[in-house]
Amino acid sequence: MTVNPDGRQRDNFKVQISNIKLGRTEKGSMAKKYLRMTWNERAQHLNLFINFTILVITGFALKYPEAFWVEPITDVPLGMTFRGILHRLSGVAIVFLGGYHVLYLIFTERGRGILKGMIPSLKDALDLWETLKNNFFINRPAKNLKMGRFNFREKFEYVGLIWGTLVMTVTGFILWFKEAWLTIFPMWTYDAARAIHFYEAILATLTIIVWHFYSVIFNPDVYPMNWAWITGEMTEHEMELEHGLELEKLKAEEKKTLVKADEQTGSPGAQIYPMRDAGNRSPVGRIYGTVRDLNKNIKDWKGG
């Protein structure tokens, strides 16, 4: 129990704002962080990251056994046998992860929200068009786009992940159970499955390295990394760049929550903690800062 200044007692309870925290910027001002991924979602992402990496290495090792990076596998006794076992185990793990993810989308409120947010809309097509116009300097200066909880890039990646998982699962089981498959279907169907499995693997790997890694690592706007997959949070600046509409929605919800909290307790329930001081950056960090500034200047260029 707590005692008010006038001597009256009231219940002490905690008002929790689950999607907002406060942190300190390098200039000492307060900056908010917003929940992007829960522990459950981060665990799913980490599981996918680990097993996808194993599948890429062990899969291409079979196709290119003479490559220098395969030597640690081939030089070990029964290394290629172990490669095959590990490849299959990781494949099965991703299949089970996919099944769990489907259940998460169906039977949890947050999962249903993710599923709803991932549905492509006309606005995604318009955002894609305006992004292309920005990149080709048709919009001068670049148009500021406000996107929702998931932008069109994330939706494309998500749809690609679903499609790729289904294709690789079906063709993978065909290659795994070759004898049983050929007792029913002709040899050309097996050869087709092997070709599809190989080229889909190339497409998936390039998508991650070229598209996803740029979006979350190499893009100067998010250097050195989008930490949401580790911390589960994004800064207000990051939200403004990538999810402006979602930020406006969260701020509106925050305002309502804080008003209610003030009425009940007299103080908001946000937590405060320090952020990493970014004042002393490494030479690589300064290079990325220069590239980021150049990127911003190009976006804001109005033309001659």
Short note summarizing the structure:
The protein is mainly α and 304 residues long. The protein has twelve helices and five strands.
Describe this structure as you would to a colleague:
The chain contains twelve helices and five strands. It has 304 residues and is mainly alpha-helical. It has a domain at 37-117. It has a three-stranded antiparallel β-sheet with strand order 3-4-5. It has a two-stranded antiparallel sheet with strand order 1-2. The protein is globular, with a radius of gyration of 25 Å. Mean pLDDT is 85; it is low at 1-17, 25-29 and 269-278.
Helix amount, in percent?
55-70%
Terminal Cα span: 68 Å
Strand order, largest beta sheet: 3-4-5
What's the number of helices? 12
Shape: globular
Instruction: Classify the beta-strand content into a percent band.
Output: 5-15%
Major beta sheet summary: 3 strands, antiparallel
The number of E-state strands comes to: 5
Given helix and strand content, the structural type is: mainly alpha
Query: Could you list the spans in which at least 5 consecutive residues all have pLDDT below 50?
Result: 1-17, 25-29, 269-278
Oligomer: single chain
Topology of this protein?
Elements lengths: L1 E2 L5 E2 L9 E5 L5 E6 L3 H25 L7 H4 L4 H29 L1 H9 L4 H14 L16 H25 L1 H5 L4 H32 L9 H4 L1 E3 H7 L1 H22 L17 H18 L4
Antiparallel strand pairs: 1-2, 3-4, 4-5
Helix pairs in contact: 1-3, 3-4, 3-6, 6-8, 10-11
